[in-house]
Q: What sequence folds into this?
């Protein structure tokens, strides 16, 4: 957190922690930012989003996608969750940016079957492709989090603040 008296970052409190956790648990998709291994340029895409049994962020992705290749080359990434509501200025709605490191959980690996069963509870339509050989889970280890709770409500959070 900045010590600058003019900083827009507020001290992290229980309300900010609760809002960030609620955003994570309610999200079913996210914007994923990666570094394209071919060009070195940022690449952003939308991915399905969920949590592990312990609350960590996860997605189910195909090896055929550009963002999977990017994560394999550079596991550092960013996730943006929280969508604007149907009314008002989109910038007044809460959103959470997670800085993460990706790791993959592939078919046949220890814990994959359990993760698949857990994932399908919230993403039942994934049953159509979850068993395809090119699909695996990208588990995201949170390094830092930035909550914008609406106008004038910015917070820096740690993995511990998120219960991770």
A:
């Amino acid at each position: 957190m900045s010590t600058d008296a003019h900083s827009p970052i507020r001290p992290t409190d229980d309300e900010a922690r609760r809002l960030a956790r609620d955003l994570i648990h309610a999200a079913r998709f996210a914007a994923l930012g990666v570094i394209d291994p071919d060009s070195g340029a940022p690449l952003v895409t939308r991915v399905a989003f969920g949590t592990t049994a312990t609350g960590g962020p996860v997605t189910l992705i195909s090896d055929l996608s550009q963002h999977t290749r990017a994560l394999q080359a550079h596991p550092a990434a960013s996730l943006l969750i929280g969508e604007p509501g149907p009314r008002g200025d989109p910038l007044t709605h809460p959103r959470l940016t997670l800085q993460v490191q990706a790791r993959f959980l592939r078919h046949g690996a220890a814990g994959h079957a359990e993760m698949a069963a857990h994932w399908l509870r919230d993403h039942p339509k994934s049953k159509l492709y979850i068993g395809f050989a090119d699909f695996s889970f990208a588990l995201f280890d949170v390094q830092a989090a930035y909550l914008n709770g609406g106008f004038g409500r910015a917070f820096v959070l740690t993995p511990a603040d998120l219960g991770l």
User: Anything to note?
Assistant: The two ends are 19 Å apart (CA to CA).
